[in-house]
């Protein structure tokens, strides 16, 4: 249930989170999951017993926060349905973690820098793509690398080394036909994601290409070689 007397704002309050998940993994997973709705300025989660199972997510735009509230309400997150509402203004976030808000002047500067960086066909999160959302041709030794034909398995690169299968499942299971995520312990930073068919894998690729699983890591997705 949303609290009717709290007006829409940039910060959302999420509760009923799984208390067994470690703080840093929780923050990374929330960032990865909610970044699809807009630029996130901060994710606040604290260890104190009174505040476990809760988090605050600060978006740069109210519309992003509103979309997240609507679409992620009751979403199963680490086996528990999330309860989401707008936070009671900035004071909630500031009271729980000092100096977490980015000043408006800095936000405007970040927005300006983001606009300047947008150049040519690329995903919103920075990985260059063609018009179909697949990665633009990459080059090795001055020659373009061979493009793998579409198939039902995706090859995901540029992941943080501490990415878990659970984190990736949260992202990919929202797409029809999702089957499983496979990671290789000896090769951190990559994963394979399998779907029922290539149409479903293509949809997921186009939607998540360049998705920032952390502020520094934009996923690079291609079809796996068979």
Automatic annotation (TrEMBL):
GO cellular component, one term: small nuclear ribonucleoprotein complex
Main localization of the protein described in the UniProt heading: nucleus
Protein name: RRM domain-containing protein
Subcellular location, record wording: Nucleus
Bias (Basic and acidic residues): 108-120
Keyword field: mRNA processing, mRNA splicing, Nucleus, Repeat, Ribonucleoprotein, RNA-binding, Spliceosome
Record bears the keyword Magnesium: no
Gene Ontology annotations of biological process type: mRNA processing; RNA splicing
Native species: Tagetes erecta (African marigold)
Record-stated family: Belongs to the RRM U1 A/B'' family.
Domain named RRM: residues: 10-89, 152-226
